[in-house]
Prior knowledge:
The structure holds 2 protein chains of 2 kinds.
Chain A: H1 7-12, H2 14-46, H3 51-64, H4 69-84, H5 90-115, H6 119-127, H7 132-162, H8 174-185, H9 188-218
Chain B: E1 5-16, E2 19-30, E3 34-38, H1 45-52, E4 60-65, E5 68-69, H2 90-96, E6 97-100, H3 112-122, H4 128-141, H5 157-169, E7 175-179, H6 187-202, E8 207-210, H7 214-220, E9 223-228, E10 231-236, H8 239-242, H9 247-256
Amino acid sequence: MNFKFRWDYVTSRWELLAHGLSITIYVSIISMALALLLGLIIALLRMSKVRVISFPAQLYINIFRAIPLFVFLIWLYYGLPIMIGFNFAPITAGILCLSIQYSSWMAEIYRSGIGAIGKGQREAAASLGLTSFQSFVDVIFPQALRIIVPPTGNMFVGMLKDSSLVGIIGVFELVRQAQLAVSQTFRPFEFYTAVAAIYILLTLLLSQGVNYLEQRQQA
Amino acid sequence: MDEKIILQVENLNKYFGDLHVLKNINLQVRQGEHLVIFGPSGSGKSTLLRCMNLLEEPQSGSLYFLGKDYGPKAPKRKFWQKRDGNSVDPLYLRTHIGMVFQQFNLFPHLSALDNVTLALRRNKKMARDAASEKAIKQLKAVGLGDKAQSYPSQLSGGQQQRVAIARALVMEPRLMLFDEPTSALDPELVGEVLAVMRDLAHSGMTMAVVTHEMGFAREVGDHLIFMDEGVIVEEGDPEILSNPNRERTKAFIKAIL
């Protein structure tokens, strides 16, 4: 074996990776924010006692959490424009797919968190003359949040990694940029090692953030 | 009697599916009166109490709060209609009827103080300072002035229930409902909660209490109701505890004493 690990190839093209990293972070944060919002709306609709409202939400969850992200991306970016004659920018299509898919998972996380809060809490809030909206905002949701935070942290980690898939529709995120660098240098091992290290670092940072949130809630 | 009738129940019926849990209930609660409802479990006493603030919705009959019908026959306010003084909707009703639950149901994510101020701030739109001042007074009244910053998990069961009583009282209700307030407590903690309720009764608060504490019923109650299988079997003053007229009441009292 006379393979030499040439780290200098990576350091000389660090701007390429830095640009990819910024796109990865941008796509992940925007998609996660949308998924958090959309997921909450879907969860609330899903929990409605009115079937006409809860059924479409249930359908949404069952469809979008079942489609592999790879298939969803290709379907939305290459397939859908043929039918509707409207093109998405790659990054828009990527964010749409990620946020829709993650919102279906988030909806279930919200639902289990909200469902775990006992009926007594709702009754106590009602007995004080709070409206159901006030009861949700002041009593139910803050308690559900404690249950929701840890699995949401996992979702965010998943989002970071899944965002690498949007490279296939031409978004120049971290992995796509690394591929580009590899095609110029023929040093795949070095670049993918760097990419892996960056993902590990991001995930560590993120789990620190989640730990902090959890601890603050317990205080 | 010419005292004001706070609450009136007329021919009230409540079903859970096919189960007929309240059968043609009639009763009145007058101002300052201390109604005690007792009876075996499953007799419908808690359900009756929960119908009084519409936590349960009865299927037929009437409920009057200060003369205004809010039972199943009362016209329902549509969501686009403004609240006015003529219709009694659940929110209006619940700001005037306080409730204390068997399991306390304090909000665990809020301090004792915030538990008490929440309804003042949200429902009566009071500023935080004014609400806190009022809440502290109320917490002092139940002997917990020093626990304002504690969270429910840091309090004993008896203390939690006293916070729950303060939380209901701070709204200055016309009527207080107590649903087995001491049943979930360790025996040595029952006394402190009953003491608070006794003080409240002496201060003239109108109360409806579902309880198994017969000592409390005898001492504080002035209108006792014995329920079994969804009907009021016997009704009267505390004398019915010593000299019940009905066999069923006699058997029940004998069994629990």
